[in-house]
Amino acid sequence: MAKNCMAAVAKMLGVELGEEFIIENKDRKEIVVLAADGFHVIQPNDVLGPDHGKLLSKVLQGLYEVKKKPWVPKHNEYYYCPSVRQIGVSYVKWWGDIIDYALKALGMVYKTKEEAEAHLAEDYERLTGKTLSSR
Q1: Which DSSP symbol is given to 33?
Q2: Helix/strand/coil for 80
Q3: DSSP three-state, residue 117
Q4: 3-class DSSP state for residue 125?
Q5: Which terminus of the chain is more exposed, N or C, with fewer CB under 10 A?
């Protein structure tokens, strides 16, 4: 019996099997899911359409860039974000309020502390107009 290699392909692309992610180039942008049987393109009505190997082949050839969709916490789930007051990273619970959505819209909601710390300097400057080193 032949071995299914899609889990290895997912790992190579930096995604998980079943995860929605974005593939794009200068001419096209698609939201796709990699499953055991290949790519499925998410149609505007949220129906999965088969790819028949065309886009997957182009991704493997390097004709498309793979981008993860922004992570959004579930209600009551914790996330990390920049803290201007503490000048560091905060660990807060997602309540779905205006602050949560404002941080999400700015791309400042992170799943891990390491991600938040890696973006702290740029997030701080974007929020305050000052460099982190000049504080």
Answers
A1: E
A2: strand
A3: helix
A4: helix
A5: N
At 8 the three-state DSSP class reads helix
Residues 6+ apart with CB under 8 A from 31: 20, 21, 22, 41, 42, 69
How far apart (Å, rounded) are the C-alpha atoms in residues 2 and 108? 43
3-state DSSP assignment of residue 96: coil
pLDDT digit string (tens) for the chain, length 135 residues: 789 999 999 999 999 999 999 999 999 999 999 999 889 998 888 788 888 778 899 999 999 999 988 788 999 999 999 998 888 999 999 999 999 999 999 999 999 999 999 999 999 999 999 998 876
SS3 content of the chain, % helix, strand, coil (to 5): 30, 25, 40
Q: Would you call 111 exposed, middle or buried from its count of C-beta atoms within 10 A (0-12, 13-18, 19+)?
A: middle
> Greatest CA separation found in the chain?
62
